Amino acid sequence: GSLANPGAGYFWGEGPGPDARGLQRGLIGHRGAFGIITKIAVKLYPWPGPPALPTDGIAPDKKSELPPERFKWYLFTYPTLGEAIEGMREISKAEIGCIMHRWPPIYYDWWWAKSKEEYWSTWTEEYWQNNVNHCVAVCLWGFASEKQVEYEEWVLKQIIEDTGGKLIPDEVYQRWVPYTANNWVRDSNGNRMARPAGGYYISDMAIDSLDDCQRNFDSGWTVLDKYTPPLLDSEHPAWVAPYDFGHFALAEMDVPREKLDDSDLIAVGGILQDIILKSVETQVPAFLLTTSSYDRTGAPFANIHLLVAKIKKALDPNNVANPTRLINMEKMEKADK
After folding, report:
1. Whether 271 contacts 118, CB under 8 Å
2. CB 287, CB 206: distance < 8 Å
3. When comparing pLDDT for 142 and 283, which is higher?
4. In a domain, 19, yes or no
5. Does residue 310 register a pLDDT over 70?
6. Is residue 7 part of a domain?
7. How many other C-beta atoms can be found within 10 angstroms of the C-beta atom of residue 257?
């Protein structure tokens, strides 16, 4: 970026040549193993809210709402998951808002329910499944001023209309936003995910792009179906979380599970094995493989470790930049002898 030029300052984060975004595998990155990043800056946006989150009520029935002139939540649904992802892509292009997610209905019940009984009664009634299926949630932040929220609100409404989105009913909005939305500003209630059954498990997770999300879910759901039960009902969960204005995206499937041997040994153990086999079969590594060094996992994926080794050798000939985390050069060289 611009720091490569003496005296240029921190105004530009891209290239020329390999940089923090280039030569990168999804969101995981090259872990500083190429030796091309020697200085880095993080841009901090001003916090437009009060010093402390305002709250009302007593836990577990406690609500938290931020000043509406500076923070405004929009929740809107689409007919299909693919259309929801495309809507998120257009919002990312516009570079508006601070928070954007596509949460599955199970997430809404997880974070909203105040007891195990309320969770399962609401789930069997299919309240959230009927009201927030393929729902995108966006929070607009007035970093600069209240007028910023007004402008971004106008842009967002136009995108929702153009992409075929539909705002959720106000009754559903009022049930969800005041009670749970601020968990995505300051998350202090993650333990709610264990309330319905005692624990939860990630069926599959990939960190790549918005283009890859649908593929990841289609392949992961088949594995999830195989182990439900003993895993509990989740109705094909799909959490899409874009990063860096939509350049990358997390695709994750979280499911409730009981703390029993059959869940731990059969479901969890089986899922780990099946996901690895599925990744090799589709030639697309999921999270379990992308976090391993390339010399261990590259062979089934078009021998990508050989290409990465050449890049590493060219940029870091002495192998001093975070050795072994991305690729174990010494191990590969010994194997070649």
Report:
1. no
2. yes
3. 142
4. no
5. yes
6. no
7. 25
Residue 311's H or E segment, with its range, is: helix 304-315
Q: What is the pLDDT of residue 295?
A: 85
Token digits of residue 112? 């909203």
| Half-sphere exposure (Cβ direction) of 141: Cα atoms closer than 13 Å | 15
CATH code of the domain in which 154 resides: 3.40.462.10
Q: At what angle do helices 116-125 and 105-112 cross, to 10 degrees?
A: 150
Let me know how long the chain is. Answer: 337
Which of 200, 220, 170 shows the shortest CA–CA distance to 109? Answer: 200
Residue 193's Cβ-count burial label (10 Å; 0-12, 13-18, 19+) is: middle
Q: How far apart are CA 253 and CA 84, in angstroms?
A: 16
Determine the average pLDDT of the residues in 201-220.
80
- DSSP of 73-134, one letter per residue? EEEEE-SSHHHHHHHHHHHHHHT--SEEEEE-HHHHHHHH-SSHHHHHHHHHHTHHHHHSTT
82 and 141 in contact (C-beta within 8 Å)?
A: no
Tell me what the mean pLDDT of segment 297-317 comes to: 87
Asked if residue 115 lies in contact with residue 171, where contact means CB atoms within 8 angstroms, the answer is no
Report the sign of the C-alpha dihedral through residues 117, 119, 123, 128, in that order: positive
Residue 267 pLDDT more than 60? yes
Pick 91 or 43 by higher pLDDT. Answer: 91
Q: Is 306 left (phi over 0), alpha (psi -120 to 50) or beta?
A: alpha
Is 311 a member of any domain?
A: no
Residues 17-57 have pLDDT tens digits of: 555 565 555 556 777 788 777 777 777 888 999 998 899 99
Domain extent, residue 96, equals 56-284
pLDDT of residue 7: 80
Number of structural domains (the chain) is: 1
Token pair recorded at residue 117: 């009984």
CA dist., res. 138 & res. 157, Å (int): 11
Asked whether residue 166 is domain-assigned, the answer is: yes
